[in-house]
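User: Structure please.
Assistant: Input sequence and predicted structure:
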Amino acid sequence: MKKILVSTALLAGVLSYAGGFRVSLQGVKQLAMAHTSAHAEDASVAFFNPAGMSFIPSKLSIVAGGFGASNKVTFQNLNTLQSTETDNPMGTPLYAAIAYKPLEKLSVGFSFTTPFGSTIEWPNDWEGKEMVQKLELKSFYFEPMISYKFNDWLAFGASYIYARGTVNWDKAITQFGGELNLDSKASGHGYGFGFYFRPDPKLDVSIAYRSPVDMKAKDGKATFKFPSASVYPLLGLDASGTDSFKATLPLVEEYTIGLTYKITPKWLVSADFNYHGWERYGKLTLDFATAPVGNQADPTISVSPKNFRNAKTFRLGTQYAFTDMIYGRLGAYYDESPYTDENFIPETPSFNTYVVTGGVGFKLKQFGVDVAGGYAIPQARDVKNANLGFYGQAKATAFYLGLGLSYNPF
């Protein structure tokens, strides 16, 4: 029973991914320039800062795009030298946005993104199988927004965030040769706001804030499978082996400052600084209905420490217009992991990462086509998680490809 209790407490690990590991894939043009934010050429600015809609040159703007995201994680036990590699399928994040000016100074818009969709799959028999075998995650963000332009150089915008997500996670329970599946849906609400400045025709400044969102899972389903039916009564379960649980999964606040400067009419440079308030994610609590698999005085409650810390991202990108129709873009950024080696978890592996990006854009009158790619260089980690008894070295690789379309009819 002790092994089941400890292992089940790790259920919290999978949910942390749904709770806020940000994937920077919400604009193809932006990704090509290190995912910088101070760009108001079309409706893709809506996700980054709703105030930017006021500076879109057209009255109506529509954008849509998608990505292929591939990543692989390798873990090696330094004592046995056994190495394990994930077999993750390609992720396909999507985005779409629309912005419209019903009045000269007023803009309204809507943004749809899937910022937390991916799958991580370890071999079923790997040494960390009691922590995770497979994790599937999907999330959807819906954001209506509004912006008001006070004058030629200043606008303020705000958005309402409605988030929905699903997670499906498999792990082993080796004590009885069994398995556990966690399947849940969660939803939450939040808001964002920002200021967009253009004090000079050559300079754009974007300042934006995204609030915390508590994703609430009220009807999660935990399914236990054991080769012997005699185990179910020990956990207070019926013959189906199912139980329900509830949890609150925190997404954290984000602060962004972005600058874009036109060095020449053809050449611009952009920079961003992001600050993520991960410190609020210190632990995660799961409350099961009947199964006594917790680690608290109430045996149905499991608390998993996370010990996350605030993290920063630094971004630098550039664009050069070869002609009025063809644009070249490059960028690079550094993204900090929100936890230390002592808190590394294989359900949501995270690394201090350098990323190089690039792409091209084409303008065909009212239409735009953008292509972008990114190559990530995660830094290897010495895994020292005493709470999980998980030690070794973790490495990863990742790359992204994206295609975006824009339409500014008038």
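Residues 1-20 have pLDDT under 50 and may be disordered.
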